Amino acid sequence: MTQVSLVPILLCVAALACAGIAIWRGPRPVTRGLVIDRLLRYLFVFPLGLQGLWAFVGHVFFPAQSAAAIGWSDSPFQFEVGMANLGLGLASLYVAFRGFEARLAAALVAAAFLIGAGLIHITGIVGSGNLAPGNAGPIMVTDFLTPIAVLLLLFLGIRAPSEVADDVRARGRV
């Protein structure tokens, strides 16, 4: 496994560590909503936001090296993938500190892009036996697991309108 293959793993670990610290330092009692919010926040910051920017830099400024790590031939497609990663990275950093609707929109875009990329990785493995670390390694796994984790957390964080109203009343905001 190359050092580049470690980036997705390190960014997932960073997300979990930062979420853990934020929860530990957060208000008491710790609520399910707080845990979900902090996990989502740092998944958007690290494996979606920073990894998107990292992939942008790699595909746009180092296309030959990126293509070699993936087992591809260098092509103009590298620029296209890099720009998609730039959009994903910037949007993810923005929504990390926003509400449910913004996070859901970004999660749907991330899921479409990343799961599609993951399917291309699988096609490369099945079709041509491409087991390059940038194709069959951690990036392929995170292409599936990251959007699934984010969508699952968003689903778990949905509350009925009556629960939201009760929470607002309990805090004296109504």
Explain the overall architecture.
The chain is an all-alpha fold and 174 residues long. It has one domain (3-158). The chain is 82% helix and 0% strand. The chain contains eight helices and no strands. It has helices spanning 3-25, 32-61, 63-70, 77-95, 100-128, 133-136, 138-157, 161-170. The model has no long low-confidence stretch (mean pLDDT 91).
Span of the ends, CA to CA: 55 Å
**Strand percentage:** under 5%
What number of structural domains do the residues give?
Answer: 1
What is the share of helical residues? Answer: over 70%
DSSP helical segment count = 8
Q: Structural class from helices and strands?
A: mainly alpha
Rg (C-alpha, Å): 18 Å
Order of helices and strands: HHHHHHHH
Features:
single chain, 174 residues, mainly alpha, 8 helices, 82% helix, elongated
Summed up, what is this model?
This protein has 174 residues and is an all-alpha fold. The chain has helices at residues 3-25, 32-61, 63-70, 77-95, 100-128, 133-136, 138-157, 161-170.
Q: What's the structural blueprint in terms of helices and strands?
A:
Elements (H helix, E strand, L loop, with lengths): L2 H23 L6 H30 L1 H8 L6 H19 L4 H29 L4 H4 L1 H20 L3 H10 L4
Helix pairs in contact: 1-2, 2-3, 2-4, 2-7, 4-5, 5-7
